[in-house]
Fold this sequence. Notes:
Layout lengths: L4 E2 L12 E3 L6 E4 L9 H4 L6 E7 L13 E2 L2 E2 H9 L7 E6 L2 H9 L4 E3 L7 H11 L6 E5 L8 H12 L6 E7 L12 E4 L5 E5 L18 E10 H6 L7 H6 L3 H6 L4 E7 L8 H13 L4
Parallel strand pairs: 4-7, 4-9, 7-8, 10-14
Antiparallel strand pairs: 1-2, 2-3, 3-14, 5-6, 9-13, 10-13, 11-12, 11-13
Amino acid sequence: MSPSWTTPSASDGTSSSWLVHGLLAGATIVAAAGAYAVISTSRSAKFRSRVIGIIPARFSSSRFQGKPLVPILGKPMIQRIWERAKLATTIDKLVVATDDDRIAEICLGFGADVIMTSESCRSGTERCTEALQKLREKFDIVVNIQVDEPLIEPEIIDGVVKALQAAPDAVFSTAVTSLKPEDASDPNRVKCVVDTHGYAIYFSRGLIPYNKSGNVNRNFPYFLHLGIQSYDAKFLKIYPELSPTLLQLEEDLEQLKVLENGYKMKVIKVDHDAHGVYTSEDVEKIEALMRERNLS
């Protein structure tokens, strides 16, 4: 079943949007409103057409040591990410970028392509940049697929690629979903605000927007940032040359360096029950969810 494209009704509250009915139950993607929200399939075939997906993975982590290799119902988490990403239809090549031999060995064992990168990479984006430089093939778009979301929908990966293809003024695209009220104060759940044309305004570990009462407004559509983003390959080559910015360092969010330097970032809104793995406790939660949904 291929994705079907429909125009939302007036009740959607947007002047122009797109909707993808995914292959998996409940996997729908709705783009933020704006001039570039409608994806032109004819232009997409020519503009930024070659796409590589890169899964940056490091063993050392202050929050969760060895996270890519943690078992999720018997499979390493990075294998689950790989298998989901392989289902995306827009990706021409998929690789794992790592600086750790243990991760490389496991990935090679389940058939993944691996590129070894240096330990000096300060972020997943920098690791993607180094991996891209080591490839002989040329690509127009690089998709950074983080290991935090082992249940990421392949339709979401396709969605951020098509959003960037349809927005020539953007160098970056990403996805958000609805933020659950119970996650409002969790600094591991990154929040995002978007303008009326579907471009990112700001990302924060704190709740944004923040109202005068200091309480979560249960009627407000807060956005949770998902760990999936795509970059224009030419921009990615200059990204490491950009100096770290004050907001980026304060929030510890690499997306802010893009915005602070004046570049545009396209955002799509997706209907996705996000279950990121940031701590060991999150592993138990996601395994319980998978058992409940009979996902092997």
